[in-house]
Amino acid sequence: MPLVKDDALVADDAWATLPDDAPIPGDGPIIVSLARWQAEGEALRTRNTPLGIRLASDQSPALVADDLGRFGLVALEFPVFSDGRAFSHARILRERYGFKGEVRAIGDVHRDQLAFMARCGFDAFELSGDSADALADWRAAQAEIGVHYQPAADTHPTALSLRERRRVAAIRPATPAALPARRVADDADSTEASASRRPAPVATLHADDYLASASLAGYWAY
Predict the structure, then answer these.
(1) In terms of C-beta density within 10 A (0-12 exposed, 13-18 middle, 19 or more buried), how is residue 148 classed?
(2) Distance, CA of 116 to CA of 138 (rounded, Å)
(3) Which whole-number Å values give the CA distances from 78 to 32, 34, 113, in the listed order?
(4) Please, how many CA atoms are within 13 Å of residue 222, restricted to the half-sphere of its CB?
(5) What is residue 40's predicted lDDT score, i.e. its pLDDT?
(6) What pLDDT does residue 205 have?
(7) Is there a contact between 102 and 126 (Cβ–Cβ < 8 Å)?
(8) Which of 37, 65, 67, 75 has the most CB atoms in a 10 Å sphere around its CB?
(9) DSSP 8-41
(10) Using CA atoms, how far apart are residues 47 and 37, in angstroms rounded to an integer?
């Protein structure tokens, strides 16, 4: 099935999905099932190559929460179009557990789901159907909705945040560079005039001068 990632069609996927009954290869990135991980985790931990895990729609990321740091990829399965539990699993991975690796959508994946998948935290998509249309479908799905009302696991700004940016920009004071030249000159003259009206600084007395002044004050007092 065609794989779309980083706005491109992946011609040669580095990850290999390992069947549960297949021997563990010595090298190369592999994706194993949750059952395989639970049964052979110790052997899989000794491999010095990237490891991914595949979760069915009824398998929560909480089952591997303590091991997520070992995985470079989590593949979430959509068994049928109407089963959307993997949407929630993707958000849990990103928002609750802070997973930074690849989150791949696999199974019954279609164009109508792509925009929502991206919002939930998926960043790789194994589409059902013809590879010739996969990239075009992905790009069309991303272009359909330009403004979002709700925050999600992606980085798209919401309608509220965009409105707030416009409001702040409208009330932000102008910088001196943007002011008319005459106003800048008037401000400079005003500053100079204010400086000319300030009282002159009081001269400081040396210690000897202070003693002489004190003596004179005492003389006149008598």
Answers:
(1) middle
(2) 11
(3) 16, 15, 11
(4) 5
(5) 95
(6) 44
(7) no
(8) 75
(9) EEESS-S-EEPPTTSPPPSSS-EEEEHHHHHHHH
(10) 13
Cα–Cα nearest to 133, from 154, 111, 148: 111
Q: Residue 140: what pLDDT?
A: 85
Please provide the DSSP assignment of 175-199 as one string: PGGGS-HHHHHHHHHHHHHHHHHSP
Query: What's at 101, amino acid-wise?
Result: G
177 within 8 A of 187, measured Cβ to Cβ = no
**pLDDT reported for residue 134:** 86
Cβ contact 92:114 at 8 Å: no
CA distance 141 to 162: 22
Q: H-type helices in 46-180, by residue range?
A: 85-91, 111-120, 131-144, 159-171
